[in-house]
Amino acid sequence: MTSLPQSDRLTAVDGSLSWRAESIDSDERLHWHFVPNEQFPRKGVQIKEMTDAQRTLAWALLQTGVSARGFTTARSIMELENILKSVEAPNGRFARDHEAYQFSVFGTPGDKKAWGWRFEGHHLSVSMTVRDAEVSPAPVFFGANPARVSYGAQVVSQMQMHILAASYALTSPPPSLPCVWCCSAAPAPSYAQPLQLFHSVVWDALYPAMIANPVGNPISLASNSTLIAPFVQPGQSYQMTLTSAGAAGVPAVAATWNGAPDPTIQIEVTGSTPITYAVPGNSYPSSAVALTLNVTVAAGAAGGLRGITVTNPGDPVQAAMPALLNVVV
Predict the structure, then answer these.
(1) Buried-exposed string 221-256: b where 16+ CB fall within 10 A, e elsewhere
(2) Is 88 within the bounds of a domain?
(3) How far apart are CA 11 and CA 25, in angstroms?
């Protein structure tokens, strides 16, 4: 905070906030949360109530308490309110105002004994207390909702872009390209393939949880996830769940290492459940199968990533899906 000149420091706080200042010993200083204002009324001056000059100084004050990256993250969290407003419209529960974040002051700015300030709103709370010239940054909370901007309309809203498209004249017929499997030949074979591997306790927590999306089609929290390969250790057995496309009956599931079968990892299929699931990279859920596995890692197994194959009865073994399992020694 001392990076601001004394006059600017006092203007940033006194000129914008002091008329709503609370005592440093006030219970209000302990009254903090990360939920929207409608659920948790707050005292302070909102960004939208400030003049341009006051905003500039308020942002400078916030920057004294967080890093450059932290300041950028804080502003990004605020901008996510615009996305939530567009997603939840027209019947959203909350106003979703990206400027409804407020500064609060406790005590007298510059008091050598103790004073403090807080900047807070939905999914954001930064509190600083200055006592005997030492700054205590607590509590500090950064969150995000939505955690990932994954829909085109949201990106357009967030970046304030326009997307333009136009047809163009076709000067010649498009080239005729052969299909991967010609329609006049026998039907293409369909083989099972692995999709993602989870520790069963993780899958059982994610799959039943349904989340909403702008198209009004709730999907499982496990859908469109991108998870690191689950860790296993030598000499241990694990209950795991493998999502698979095209698995039928009781398929054989095996681990590979460096392109060859890995005898140090034994996998037994103990169950099979139909699921509706969107694999990473897909935008819409489709039918798949969740295979329940008992995975045993031999005591002498080497560390490293393993691939996984899924083979239906009577089918040839197909190429492994790489890096689905990680042996950590």
Answers:
(1) ebbbeeeebbebebeeebebbbbbbbbeeebebbbb
(2) yes
(3) 23
Nearest CA-CA partner of 103 in 126, 81, 80, 123 = 126
Supply 156's token pair.
Answer: 């357009």
Whether residues 142 and 10 fall in one domain: yes
Structure tokens at 108: 């007298």
Domain region containing 198:
193-327
CA 146 from chain center: how many Å? 7
Close Cβ partners of 23 (under 8 Å, ≥ 6 residues apart): 106, 107
Phi, psi of 251 (to 5 degrees): -75, 160
Query: Is residue 221 a contact partner of residue 211, using CB atoms and an 8 Å limit?
Result: yes
Decide: helix, strand or coil at residue 10: helix
Is residue 148 domain-shared with residue 22, that is, in the same domain?
yes
DSSP string covering 89-126:
TTS-SS---TT--EEEEES-TT-SSEEEEEEEETTEEE
Secondary structure class of 47 (helix, strand, coil): helix
- 118: β partners: 104, 127
* Tens of pLDDT, residues 99-123: 999 999 888 888 888 889 999 999 9
pTM: 0.47
90 upstream amide cis, omega within 30 of 0? yes
Identify whether residues 96 and 31 lie together within a single domain. yes
Query: Does residue 197 share a domain with residue 155?
Result: no
Rounded Cα–Cα distance for residues 53 and 15 (Å): 10
Strand partners, 77: none
Q: Of 10-14, 108-112, 153-157, 317-321, which one has max mean pLDDT? A: 317-321
276 touches 286 (CB < 8 A)? yes
3-class SS at 245? strand
**What 3-state class would DSSP assign to 237?**
strand
Q: What is the pLDDT of residues 37-68, one digit of tens each?
A: 999 998 889 999 888 888 888 899 899 888 88
